[in-house]
Amino acid sequence: MLAATKVPYLYGLTKLGQVFGTDKVDAAHTRNGLAYTDIYERYLRPWRRQRFTLLELGVYRGNSLRMWNSFFPRATVVGLDLEPLAAERAAEFEVTVGSQSDPEVLASVVRKHPDLRLVVDDASHITSLTIASFRHLFPQLPRGGMYIIEDLAPNTYEDWPGHDAERGTNWPAIQQNPEESRFNVRQDMDDFLRELIRDCDLGGGPFGEGPGAKEVAFVHVWPSIVVVGRA
Ligand SMILES: C[S@@+](CC[C@H](N)C(=O)[O-])C[C@H]1O[C@@H](n2cnc3c(N)ncnc32)[C@H](O)[C@@H]1O
Fold first, then answer.
1. DSSP letter (8 states) at residue 18
2. Residues 122, 152: contact at Cβ < 8 Å?
3. Coil, strand or helix at 84
4. In this structure, are residues 124 and 173 in contact, taking their beta carbons and an 8 Å threshold?
5. Where are the domains of the chain?
6. How far apart are CA 134 and CA 81, in angstroms?
7. Pocket residue to mutate for ligand 1, from 25, 63, 88, 124, most atoms within 8 A of Cβ
8. Do residues 146 and 229 make contact, with C-beta atoms less than 8 angstroms apart?
9. Residue 207 — pLDDT band, cuts 50, 70, 90?
10. Is the pTM of this model over 0.85?
11. What DSSP assignment string belongs to 176-214?
């Protein structure tokens, strides 16, 4: 593996996102003056000096992995992407090549990183795949862990500018995941979010460990992002 670039420790997450060039800081990912990274920093600043594993689903060129790695100098930052090229472009990190919905691939990452505490899903943004990853990974997180799902809009609104009536969305991942595109169903995302809220409130939902057991500590919905806390 190559050595990862380090930049000044005092930089905040948005500054680091700009330095490394992730789209999490651009205008398309900013609402009401807050980039995704401004929102994440509110949750994650207290973890900055801690040791844990962060898994990002969706690596592309590795720029967000570089941002996370600089923000969390003691954390282990790993990625997963469908495209082998992503692993090459982010050669300084451990990047597993496979689908975000493949239980064996996800299980192998969890086995290797039992201290997994934070998952960021910036992969396909296809509802069925987003939910599959969550169902597998969220229960593996420890109490206090967090799971972030990005770019909800393409899955959620018929009037999102990229919406395509036939395929649900013109998101590029539709080409990468042709089998799954027909499962990019808005109602499924609505039902999923409702299940999370129910589990958070009453427990015993689909992620429950039994009657009354709660796995979801909170469900925070931000523009196009949901941050879910592990109870
Ligand atoms: C938006 S890009 C990730 C950008 C990166 N996180 C950043 O901020 O710089 C989405 C990535 O998800 C990957 N992807 C698409 N479908 C996937 C799937 N089913 N499983 C895993 N990765 C997938 C694509 O190959 C692409 O590299």
1. H
2. no
3. helix
4. yes
5. 13-230
6. 15
7. 124
8. yes
9. low
10. yes
11. H-TTTGGG--HHHHHHHHHHHHHHHHH--STT-SSTT--
Residues 34-66: tens digit of each pLDDT: 999 999 999 999 999 999 999 999 999 999 999
Q: Domain 13-230 falls in which CATH fold?
A: Rossmann fold (3.40.50)
* Comparison of pLDDT for 84 and 212, the residue scoring more: 84
**Residue 194 CA from chain centroid, whole number:** 19
CB contact set of 216 (below 8 Å; sequence gap of 6+): 196, 197, 199, 200, 205, 207, 228, 229, 230, 231
Task: Confirm if 206 and 197 have CB atoms less than 8 A apart.
Answer: no
Ligand 1: lining residues by beta carbon, under 6 Å? 22-24, 56-60, 63-64, 80-83, 86, 99-100, 122-124, 129, 173, 176-177
**Which pair of structure tokens corresponds to residue 111?**
């086995």
Q: Which of 125, 136, 163, 220 is catalytic?
A: 125
- What is the 180 CA–ligand 1 centroid distance (Å)? 15
- DSSP classification of residue 54: E
Average pLDDT over the chain reads 88
Percent of the chain scoring above 90 in pLDDT: 65
Predicted confidence (pLDDT) per residue in 103-112, tens digit: 999 999 999 9
| Nearest Cα residue to 68 out of 90, 84, 85, 86 | 90
Query: Is 136 part of the annotated catalytic residue set?
Result: no
